[in-house]
Design a protein that fits this description.
The protein is mostly helical. The protein has 14 helices and no strands. It is a multi-pass membrane protein. InterPro entries: MFS, MFS_dom, MFS_Na/Anion_cotransporter, MFS_trans_sf.
C-alpha cells in the first residue's frame, strides 16, 4: 500500500496505464520520424545533374511546370541512384534482424528497456547521421542507418509486451489503436516538418536529424522516469488501479510464467501465416511509398522540398 508522498502523487496523477499509452504512442511516433526523415532529406543532400545537363528524362515533368525554390540547396553528395537506394534501404536490413530477438528479450526481461534502449540508440545514431555523411561518405551513412534499424527492430515487440501488462481486455481496442496510430502520425508529422526545416533552417538538411534525434533522447529520459514493466514494479501507481489491473489481467512473472515459444505449432498455423503475409503486403507497400515517394516527387515531378513535404 502506498503511503506519504507516493500516495499523494498517485492521487494527483492520471491512471498510469494512460501514461504508458501516451508514452507508447510517442515512442512509435518518434521511431517513425527518425525512420523516414532521410527519405526527405536525401533529396536535398545529393547533386541533381539533370538540372544543368542537356539530357532530359522523357518521363519527368519539365522544371517550368512547377514552382522552384530559389533558396533550395544544390546538394553536396555525388551519389548515383544505386548508391541512394542502398542508403535508403540499409535501415531495413538491420530492422528485420532484431524483431524476434527483441520480442524474446522483452518477454523475458520486460519491455521497458527493450523499447527504451532501442529508441535511444536510434536517436543517438540519428544525431550522428550528418557527421557520418559529411565525413564518412556513403559507406559510413549506410552503416549508421543499419545500426538505427537494429535499434528500432525491438519497437513493436517491446510495445506489445508492455501493453500486455498494462492494458485490460476491455480497453485493448481503444488504447491499442491509440498507441499504434503513432506510426501514421509520426510519418505525417516527420515528413511535413522535414520539409519545413530544410526550407527555413539556416543549416539546411542536417537540422532534420538533429531535431528528431534530440526528441528521441528526450523521450527516453521521460520514459525511464515515468514508465515501468508492469503494475507490480511501479512505485507510485494507485492501489485502486493496481488492484483493477491485477483482476483484469492477472500478475505475470516474466521469469516464471512465460512458457517456451511454440515454434512447431506456429509453423503449422494457417491463420498465423495469413497474418504474416498480410503484414508483409502492408509493409511492402507502405515502406516503399514513404521511402521512395519524396525522390519521385523531386526527381520526376520536379516539386521543391517544401511542396514535397506538403504532398506526402
Amino acid at each position: 500500500m502506498l503511503t506519504g508522498w507516493k500516495e499523494r502523487l498517485a492521487k494527483g496523477c492520471i491512471a498510469q496505464r494512460y501514461v504508458v499509452a501516451i508514452m507508447g504512442f510517442l515512442a512509435i511516433a518518434n521511431a517513425y520520424t527518425m525512420r523516414i526523415c532521410l527519405s526527405t532529406a536525401i533529396t536535398e543532400m545529393v547533386v541533381h545533374r539533370d538540372r544543368n545537363e542537356s539530357h532530359l528524362d522523357p518521363d519527368a515533368c519539365p522544371s517550368s511546370s512547377v514552382s522552384n525554390n530559389k533558396h533550395e540547396p544544390h546538394g553536396r553528395f555525388d551519389w548515383d541512384e544505386e548508391t541512394q537506394g542502398l542508403i535508403l534501404s540499409s535501415f531495413f536490413w538491420g530492422y528485420v534482424i532484431t524483431h524476434l530477438p527483441g520480442g524474446m528479450l522483452a518477454e523475458k526481461f520486460g519491455g521497458k528497456y527493450a523499447l527504451g534502449l532501442g529508441i535511444l540508440s536510434t536517436a543517438i545514431f540519428t544525431l550522428l547521421t550528418p557527421l557520418a555523411a559529411i565525413h564518412g561518405g556513403a559507406g559510413w551513412l549506410i552503416a549508421v542507418r543499419f545500426i538505427e534499424g537494429l535499434g528500432e527492430g525491438s519497437t513493436f515487440p517491446a510495445i506489445n509486451a508492455i501493453l500486455a501488462h498494462w492494458v485490460p481486455p476491455q480497453q485493448r481496442g481503444i488504447l491499442g489503436s491509440f498507441v499504434f496510430a503513432g506510426s501514421q502520425i509520426g510519418t505525417v508529422v516527420g515528413t511535413a516538418l522535414s520539409g519545413v526545416l530544410i526550407q527555413y533552417s539556416s543549416i539546411g538538411w542536417p537540422s532534420v536529424f538533429y531535431l528528431f534525434g534530440a526528441l528521441g533522447v528526450l523521450w527516453f529520459i521521460a520514459w525511464t522516469l515515468l514508465c515501468y514493466n508492469d503494475p507490480q514494479s511501479h512505485p507510485f501507481i494507485s492501489d485502486e488501479e493496481k488492484t483493477f489491473l491485477e483482476k483484469s489481467i492477472g500478475g505475470i512473472d516474466n521469469k516464471k510464467d512465460v512458457p517456451p515459444v511454440p515454434w512447431r505449432e506456429m509453423a503449422k498455423s494457417v491463420p498465423l501465416w495469413g497474418l504474416i503475409f498480410a503484414q508483409i503486403g502492408h509493409d511492402w507497400g507502405f515502406f516503399t511509398l514513404v521511402t521512395d515517394l519524396p525522390k519521385y516527387f523531386k526527381d520526376v515531378m520536379r516539386f521543391n522540398i517544401f511542396e514535397v513535404s506538403k504532398l506526402i
